[in-house]
Design goal:
The complex is a heterodimer. Helix content of chain A is about 35%, strand content about 25%. By secondary structure, chain A is of the alpha/beta class. Chain A folds into 2 domains: about 210 residues, Rossmann fold (3-Layer(aba) Sandwich); about 60 residues, 2-Layer Sandwich (Alpha-Beta Plaits). In chain A, the strands form 3 sheets. A 6-stranded mixed β-sheet of chain A has the order 6-7-8-3-9-10, with helices on both faces. Chain A has a 4-stranded antiparallel β-sheet with strand order 2-1-4-5, covered by helices on one side. Chain A has a 4-stranded antiparallel β-sheet with strand order 12-13-11-14, covered by helices on one side. The longest helix of chain A is centred in the middle third of the chain and has 16 residues. Chain A is elongated, with a radius of gyration of 24 Å. Chain B has one domain. Chain B is built from 9 helices and no strands. In chain B, α1 crosses α5 and α6 runs parallel beside α9. The longest helix of chain B is centred in the middle third of the chain and has 37 residues. Chain B is globular, with a radius of gyration of 20 Å. The two termini of chain B are about 20 Å apart. Classes of the chains: A alpha/beta, B mainly alpha. Chains A and B meet through α2 of A and α1, α3 and α4 of B.
Chain lengths: ~300, ~250
């Protein structure tokens, strides 16, 4: 288990992490979410003792990182896939890492096989694509067969096959009882693999809860209704206190979104008024919608209008 | 610690640019010695003292190239971010720096020693083939003394480069500072101290004091003699090394 308690990190006058506390449970994939500049990467660097926090502690099953002997065998961290000497081969990169932590070199071949880089292991890393570097980073993470895995944007540059492979792999590893903490901006991926979420904004904790609860708490479920007699139905829906809005995507003239009533009630109302229905379905907002709703006041960098 | 040294040794020998620098460091004195042996118009008048001096002179170039190698070996880790992978694997950062120093010391000792003897022997053999008699007189003993001093200096300078590399982190800047330290920085400090009334300031500039010992007459002209100048420079470098380790431990990787 990872326990972060009161972590505070300041860069000059900028407070990057502000008294941050959360826990990552073993046997689960925990998504670590936050807008750009929210402090996710800094938190991860503090966790593995690379950045020096002004206050707070990070413990792995009660131990500080610096007190762990041969940490590669306990904690696998992929902070940036580009942290490899471009002139060194993938095999040599993994070999020096293995030797430094008293690991057998045969383990290098095993993890290269695991990530599918055996054929190109002799090539210098500067010839690798970003996706290949990510695979190499994951190989380094798995080198010591660690019980804790920390990954910062591991899906960057991976092709669809690689993304699915990584997702299945992380779920499999968590299933073996390991604690997996993974940050990503690909919220659809997080939604598919993470059981728990830690959401931060401006260095502060916004939420820590199961992903399902987070989405349910921060989104609304609506009912999509399409009918050639939609105007007849809208009046009766509003009469029952429903919030009815025109459907935006796909843009139709015969469809509305209904909030405040469940699907069964809407169907019964339509039946009572003799309204023909072409579609009646439940629309649930995504993790992305929930995330944007929760972090709307904590976006450090806001995009301009797209057009 | 042995595992970390083995790891650093693997790192040092698995980057091609390191081998290129090493090859140039080795080739330079050998090429010069070969050219002198072949093309010297008057081999009869080329004394072994001159051959020894030439070996020493070209060895200084090798020393600087080797130092650059060890600086790059460290600073490239900062450049490419591999220092973060290294420090995550070995949280006791001083052990990483110390292991790099051990690897640098071992390689420098072997390379410089072999280099001096091979350079001298190549030149001597070529001159001998052209009719110059091999005379092992008292100058050889003197020259060997200079070589030993230069090998020791090479080791200390490699530590110096490593120490500055830890503090500066940037390859070009660290190399420039290491190269310019005895030529400009110490001269400026000595000048400032001399102008403020300390007449013997130059004698106490650590790098220059050590360089003086690879001269033909160490200990003369008010300079520190062997091995005191080396010891003095080594203590100075170890102090810089300690500063580097402390700075590195406190800052973010």
């Amino acid at each position: 288990m990872i326990s972060v308690e009161g972590l505070t990190k300041r860069f000059g006058s900028k407070l990057a992490i502000d008294d941050l506390s959360f826990e990552v449970q073993p046997g689960r994939v925990t998504g670590f979410l936050g807008p750009n500049g929210s402090g996710k990467s800094t938190t991860m660097r503090c966790m593995v003792d690379l950045d020096r926090p002004q206050a707070g502690t990070v413990r792995f099953s009660g131990r500080c990182y610096k007190d762990i002997v041969d940490p590669v065998t306990s904690i696998g961290a992929l902070l940036d896939a580009s942290y490899v000497h471009p002139g060194r081969s993938a095999r040599h990169h993994l070999e020096w890492l293995a030797i430094s932590n008293h690991l057998d070199r045969t383990r290098v071949s095993e993890v290269l096989e695991l990530v599918g880089l055996t054929e190109v292991a002799h090539r210098r890393v500067k010839t690798y694509s970003l996706g290949m570097k990510q695979r190499l980073g994951l190989a380094a993470t798995m080198l010591g067969d660690p019980e804790v895995i920390i990954l910062d944007e591991p899906a960057n540059g991976l092709d669809p096959e690689g993304i699915r492979w990584m997702r299945d792999m992380l779920k499999y590893l968590a299933g073996q009882g390991r604690a997996v903490l993974v940050s990503s901006h690909q919220l659809s991926e997080i939604a598919l693999m993470a059981e728990d979420l830690v959401v931060i904004g401006r260095g502060r904790l916004i939420a820590q809860e199961p992903a399902r609860d987070f989405i349910a708490r921060h989104t609304t479920t609506r009912v999509r209704v399409r009918s050639p007699q939609i105007s007849d139905l809208v009046e009766s829906l509003r009469g029952k206190g429903a919030d009815v809005s025109p459907e935006e995507e796909p843009l139709t003239t015969d469809g509305v979104l209904v909030a405040g009533l469940n699907m069964a009630t809407v169907g019964e109302l339509a039946h009572q008024h003799g309204v023909i229905l072409h579609e009646l379905s439940e629309v649930t907002d995504s993790l992305e919608d929930a995330f944007l709703a929760v972090t709307k006041d904590d976006q450090e960098y806001r995009s301009g209008p797209s057009s | 610690m042995r595992a970390i040294i083995a790891s650093e040794w693997l790192k040092a020998r698995t980057v091609r640019s390191h081998w290129v620098l090493l090859a140039i460091a080795i080739a330079f004195p050998l090429v010069i010695s070969t050219l002198v042996g072949i093309f010297n118009p008057d081999p009869q008048f080329m004394s072994y003292r001159e051959l020894g001096s030439m070996t020493t002179g070209t060895g200084v170039v090798s020393l600087l190239l080797l130092t650059s190698l060890w600086v790059i070996n460290l600073t490239s880790e900062f450049t490419h971010g591999t220092i973060r992978v290294t420090y995550a694997a070995v949280p006791a950062r001083w052990k990483v720096i110390a292991s790099k120093a051990v690897v640098g010391t071992a390689v420098t000792l072997v390379v410089m020693t072999v280099l001096f003897w091979s350079t001298f022997c190549v030149g001597a053999l070529l001159l001998d083939r052209r009719g110059a008699p091999i005379i092992v007189d008292g100058w050889l003993g003197h020259t060997v003394g200079v070589w030993i001093a230069l090998v020791a200096l090479a080791v200390i300078v490699s530590w110096f480069g490593l120490s500055l590399g830890v503090i500066i982190k940037n390859s070009p800047v660290a190399i420039v500072v290491v190269l310019l330290w005895p030529l400009i920085i110490e001269n400026l400090i000595a000048l400032a101290l001399t102008l403020s009334g300390i007449e013997t300031a130059r004698k106490w500039m650590p790098y220059q004091a050590a360089i003086q010992t690879v001269d033909n007459n160490p200990g003369l002209d008010g300079t520190l003699g062997r091995p005191w100048a080396h010891l003095y420079f080594a203590v100075f470098v170890l102090a810089i090394f300690a500063v580097g380790v402390v700075v590195d431990r406190r800052r973010d990787a």
